[in-house]
């Protein structure tokens, strides 16, 4: 009756009927942009090390950073898709409209964000392949 609701009831009423917990929702929504930010900053650091210290391992380090960041972003996308499908939602428009709860919308945005940020990570990694890492100064 008026007793304390169980934690499962509170999660269900706050996030709809999805079985995804708060940690999963945060990972699927914030994992891809965090991975992209890490990749963006690490590439800047590695290029700076290459240009100032003539470090020859910058290309391999950029490749490793790209693979790790893309793997995190893609894993978040797969997790959000799996949890979105597990919630029983098959219609994107119903998830956007929020008819079944907020968690389906968050999971869908995590999936779309994963696709966007994975693409940005890969595009960001292509530039050092075609453009010289350091500009040659004549002096």
Distance between the termini: 83 Å
Shape: elongated
Strand content is: under 5%
Discrete helix count: 5
Question: What does this entry look like structurally?
Answer:
The structure is a single chain. The protein is mostly helical. The chain has one domain (20-127). The protein has helices at 7-15, 22-53, 58-86, 92-97, 102-130. The model is unreliable at 1-5 and 9-14 (pLDDT under 50).
In short:
This protein is an all-alpha fold and 139 residues long. It is built from 5 helices and no strands. 76% of the residues lie in helices and 0% in strands.
Structural topology:
Blueprint lengths: L6 H9 L6 H32 L4 H29 L5 H6 L4 H29 L9
What are the salient characteristics of this protein?
single chain; 139 residues; mainly alpha; elongated
């Amino acid at each position: 009756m008026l007793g304390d609701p169980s934690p499962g009831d509170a999660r269900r009423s706050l996030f709809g009927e999805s079985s995804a917990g708060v940690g999963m929702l945060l990972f699927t929504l914030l994992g891809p942009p965090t991975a992209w930010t890490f990749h963006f900053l690490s590439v800047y650091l590695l290029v700076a090390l290459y240009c100032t210290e003539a470090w020859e391992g910058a290309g391999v380090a950029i490749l490793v950073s790209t693979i790790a960041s893309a793997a995190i972003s893609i894993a978040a996308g797969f997790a959000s898709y799996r949890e979105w499908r597990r919630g029983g939602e098959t219609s994107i428009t119903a998830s956007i409209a929020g008819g079944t709860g907020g968690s389906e919308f968050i999971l869908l945005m995590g999936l779309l964000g994963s696709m966007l940020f994975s693409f940005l990570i890969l595009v960001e990694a292509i530039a050092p392949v075609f453009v010289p890492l350091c500009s040659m100064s004549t002096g």
